[in-house]
Amino acid sequence: MSFLTIKNLSLSYPSHYPSPLIYNKVKNRLIMPEDHDHHYDNQHQTPAKALDNFSLNVSQGELVCLLGPNGSGKTTLLRTLCGFEQPSTGTIKLDQNTLFSSTYHMSPQKRPIGIVFQNLALFPHLTAEQNIAFGLAGLSKQQKKNKLIYIHQCCETLPLAKKFPYELSGGEKQRVAIARALATDPKILLLDEPFSSLDPPRKIALSYEIKKLLSTLNVTCLMVLHDTNQAIEIADKVALMFNGQLEQYDIPERVIRHPKTMRVASFLGDTNFISCTVTKAGYQTPFGVIDFENTYRPSPSLKSAHRKSYKIALKVDDFLLTKREIVGPHYHTKPITFQVISDTLMGLYRIIKAQIPTGETITFRIARDDSDGLDNLDSLQLYLKNSKFCIY
Fold first, then answer.
1. N or C: which end of the chain has fewer CB within 10 A?
2. pLDDT attached to residue 378
3. What is the CA 75 to chain-centroid distance, rounded?
4. b vs e for 147-184, b when ≥16 Cβ sit within 10 Å of the residue's Cβ?
5. How many CA atoms lie within 13 A of 367 on its CB side?
6. DSSP 8-state symbol, 392
7. pLDDT tens string 128-177
8. What is the distance between the alpha carbons of residues 209 and 199, in angstroms, rounded to a whole number?
9. Any bridge partners for residue 239, and if so which?
10. Over the stretch 315-355, which tens digit does the pLDDT of each residue have?
C-alpha cells in the first residue's frame, strides 16, 4: 500500500506572478532569488506549469531521489507537499490522510512533514541544541530532554550541542538541520539539495550516514539531488522530472540500464545516439547488425511496423579501441575507423570525441592504464562490445 500518494498534481503561475523576495544581509535589501523553480511565459502571457499532471506513489520507509534539470519542478514539488504552495488540481495523501484535494488544503504547520532547505535555515543566534529543540515547544521539560537525548544519539549531534552555527562545518550544519527536522517525528522527510555545499569526500560520507539513519528510523524521504551518481548509489527509487512531469520512476538499476526515453538517457549522461535501421536479422548499425535479443525498446510506441529508422543508445564504456583484429562472442565483429576531434585527459580516463564514417559524432573513453601505445588514435580500430542496447 502506498504511504505517500500524489495524484494528478498541477500547479501553474501566471506570467505576471511576482517572484518571492529574500533579504540579502550584505546588500541590506530585498532581492529576487537567482535560482528557483517557478517558470513564467512572459512572451505569451499565459500560465506556465511548474507541475503538470504529476503523480507519484511512495512506500513507507523508501528513499526516493528526485532528479531533473533546473526548472523541472523538483523544489516546487517539495514546497507543495509542505503546503507552501497550493496546487490548482490533484490530491496529496500521506498515510491515508488527505493533505490536499479540490476541497481541502491542510495548513503547513499541521502537516507531519519535516523539511531541510538548501540553505539549511539554522537560527544563527541559537546553539545547535536550541535549533534542534525549536519545534519541541509543546513538550514538557522532561519530554524535551528525553527527545533531545534520543535525537543526539541517532544523529550524533551531542558534541555539537553547545556550538553556534558559525562554529560548525558544512557537514555539521547539515547534520543539525536534519536532526531538527527529525525531532518532531515527521512521517516524511523532504531534503532539498542536502549536499550541495559539501566537498566530494564529505558529500559521499554524509549521504551514506543519512541513508543509514533514515533506514534505522524507518522514515520515508524525498530528496532533491543534481548528482546522478549519488542518487543511483543511495536511492531506493529514482524519479526523473522534466517540465513538471514524471518521465520515469523506477529502481536505480532499471533507470540506468533501461532509460525510458532519449531525454532520460541524455540527462543520465555519457550516452551516444547513433542512427540505425531495422532489418529481418536485427538493427543495422555502423558496427554491423545487432540482433533483436541484444536490444531493448523502452517505449511501446516503437513497435510500429511502419517505422524503419531508429536511434541506438551507446554508452561511453561500450567501445573497445585496439590495434589488432578481434573475433569473439564478446564483441560485435565489424570494426570501424574514426577521426579524432578531441582527446582529453580526465582523471583516470581519456575522453575521446570522434567522427565516424556515417558523419555522426561519438564520445568514448579508455582507461589511462589501457592507453599505453595508443598514441596514433586515427590508425586504430573501434569495436562495439557485445551488450544489451536501448533502441529509441
1. N
2. 72
3. 12
4. bbeebbeebebeebbebbbeebebbbbbbbbbbbbbbb
5. 2
6. -
7. 999 999 989 888 999 999 999 999 999 999 999 999 999 999 889 999 99
8. 15
9. 66, 249
10. 999 998 877 666 666 566 688 889 999 989 888 888 999 99
How many residues are recorded in the chain? 392
How many helices (H) and strands (E) in the chain?
Answer: 8, 25
Determine the residue type at 43. Q
Return the sign of the alpha-carbon dihedral for residues 59, 60, 65, 68. Answer: positive
Neighbouring CB atoms inside 10 A of 349's CB total: 18
Query: Rounded to an integer, what distance in angstroms lies between the CA atom of residue 168 and that of residue 152?
Result: 16
Laid out side by side, the sheet with 349-355 consists of 339-346, 349-355, 361-367
CA–CA separation, 274 vs 311, rounded Å? 5
Least confident residue range of 191-205, 325-339, 350-364: 325-339
Cα–Cα dist 83/223, whole Å: 17
Mean pLDDT for the stretch of residues 27-39:
44
CA–CA gap between residue 197 and residue 170 (Å, rounded): 7
The pTM of this model reads 0.85
Q: Are 66 and 224 in contact (CB under 8 A)?
A: yes
The alpha helices in the chain, defined as continuous H runs, are 74-82, 128-132, 141-155, 170-182, 200-217, 228-234, 252-257, 262-268
Using pLDDT thresholds of 50, 70 and 90, give the confidence band for residue 38.
very low
Instruction: Say if residue 387 is exposed, middle or buried (CB neighbours under 10 Å; 0-12, 13-18, 19+).
Output: middle
**Which are the contacts of 105, defined by CB distance < 8 A and separation ≥ 6?**
83, 86
